[in-house]
Amino acid sequence: MKKIRLLLIGLVLLTGCATAPTDPIALKEYQEVNDPMEPFNRSMQAFNDVFEKIIWRPLDTGYRFIVPEFLRNMIASALSNLSEPLTVVNDVLQGNFSDAGHNLARFGINTTAGIVGLFDVADGWGYEYKGNSFGTTLGVWGVGEGPYLVLPIVGSADIRGVAGLAVDFVADPVYYVPPLSKTNLWEQLGIAGVEMLAEYDVEGREYIDDNRAGSVDYYSNQRHAYRQAQRKAIAEAKGKSTSEVLKPYRFDVKE
Questions:
Q1: In this structure, are residues 57 and 200 in contact, taking their beta carbons and an 8 Å threshold?
Q2: Is the pTM of this model over 0.70?
Q3: Residue 39's pLDDT is what?
Q4: Residue 194: partners with Cβ closer than 8 Å, 6 or more residues away
Q5: Positive or negative CA dihedral for 192, 197, 199, 205?
């Protein structure tokens, strides 16, 4: 998944930016949403919506038809376990040594008792999954989020998140473990595709459909939801109350 993200980042550099309004009230709102590339972003979201419906969903349906559920769970668990050391590194970089110990224990349990991560034994033992990323680490360090972006296929992002994805990609242990470390680019893209399929679930698809059908402006709602999720992750990493960083927003829904 990270491979695809990194390869598509360059496309963003080819796009233009929206012109800032001159009206003071409109300018304040413009600066608040921090979305100078909104025309491109809306077009890219429209493309992603079509891609998801006509390509990704059939692939997902086929994957679920061919691969039994127990095997899908094992694949998802193993790939997640391989990336657990990177989570621990980000915990340490953020100064969250408690989470680092938690995730290190989780990795040890699943690598041994879970048979190299094929089974998530640790979750049943009280060591639930706690994800992390270098994008969150940058936020903890005080790096601003930057303009909002919608990347091809991947979806919502921002400048800080893109930088974090690049570092996560380079440091991802998945591509340093034999035999994955000896695969070529196309094979790695295939592995990334399997990662994405493992993360994609029917419940999530239904959630997307419900929000898309019920929103007056699905794009604005998605942009705000992404920003809130990033701020929440950073606040939690800092040990702060999320109420200190989450901004009120009225989601426009159809009557």
A1: no
A2: yes
A3: 93
A4: 75, 79
A5: positive
